């Protein structure tokens, strides 16, 4: 089912960025890298904008309503996922504010940023896990061929918003890979690409 492949691909790209965030915060905490605020700004920008502007709308507005109608047994999972999408907004605001605070005050602001990142990562990993381990297998097993075709057609009609306008999300992803310190990314050991 093409729509499910697209959702899984999007999760993989987001997971790579979440791991880059985890790795870079751990490196700063351990004193292995100097803080690269441009990299942290790109990580936060990706984590905030790609799910909010592309991935969640595709799920909330296209996938979930079609699936709700076609496969009522997934309703409790969809309710939980939609509640998580709502709750994610507060996490995301906190993430942006904690980064600004760290940049404003310097080293004393790092602990707060690292704590917010830790909470956000636990929340987002659990969210992706719920979709991957409970929702998607159920859809693969239970959706009737007509419903699968309807979801795939809706995704195809939705073009490819994942890439953003003019491929901007792809470009942001590549810039993150280039700036993230090796061995996770291609950047230099100081984390300044
Ligand atoms: Fe998702």
Automatic annotation (TrEMBL):
It comes from the Bacteria. One of its GO terms (cellular component) is plasma membrane. CDD domains: Hr-like (cd12108). Residues 3-139 form the Hemerythrin-like domain. Pfam families: Hemerythrin. This is Hemerythrin-like domain-containing protein. It comes from Rhodoplanes roseus.
């Amino acid at each position: 089912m093409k729509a499910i492949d697209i959702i899984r691909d999007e999760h993989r790209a987001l997971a790579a960025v979440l791991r880059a965030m985890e790795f870079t915060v751990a490196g700063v905490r351990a004193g292995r890298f100097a803080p690269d605020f441009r990299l942290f700004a790109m990580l936060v920008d990706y984590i905030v904008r790609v799910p909010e502007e592309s991935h969640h709308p595709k799920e909330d507005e296209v996938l979930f309503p079609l699936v709700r109608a076609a496969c009522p047994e997934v309703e409790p999972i969809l309710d939980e996922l939609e509640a998580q999408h709502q709750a994610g907004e507060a996490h995301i605001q906190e993430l942006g504010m904690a980064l600004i605070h760290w940049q404003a005050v310097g080293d004393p602001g790092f602990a707060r940023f690292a704590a917010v990142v830790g909470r956000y990562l636990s929340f987002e990993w659990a969210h992706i896990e719920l979709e991957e381990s409970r929702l998607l297998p159920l859809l693969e097993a239970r959706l009737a061929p007509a419903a699968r075709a309807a979801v795939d057609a809706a995704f195809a009609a939705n073009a490819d918003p994942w890439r953003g306008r003019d491929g901007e999300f792809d470009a942001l992803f590549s810039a993150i890979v280039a700036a993230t310190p090796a061995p996770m990314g291609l950047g230099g050991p100081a984390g300044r690409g």
